[in-house]
Amino acid sequence: MTSIAPMHTLRELEEDTREAWLHYSDRLRELSGEEYERVESESWEELQNELRRVDERREQLADSTAAFE
Fold first, then answer.
1. Gyration radius of the chain's alpha carbons
2. Helices (H), ranges, the chain
3. Which of 3, 5, 23, 53 has a CA that sits 20 to 30 A from residue 68's CA?
4. Is the pTM here over 0.90, yes or no?
């Protein structure tokens, strides 16, 4: 039973990563020039923060899974 929950969580983390990249891309889709430069910088920072959060959750999952082995 413990192996099902971690796999589900890994899938959720992968989905969170895809969603973060999609959000980043969507924010920039119709922009150009100075507006693109301004929004891209903000969006990139948000993306990096979200990816760090996902990585932290991935590490926590790995730690908790290792505890069961």
1. 16
2. 4-28, 33-68
3. 53
4. no
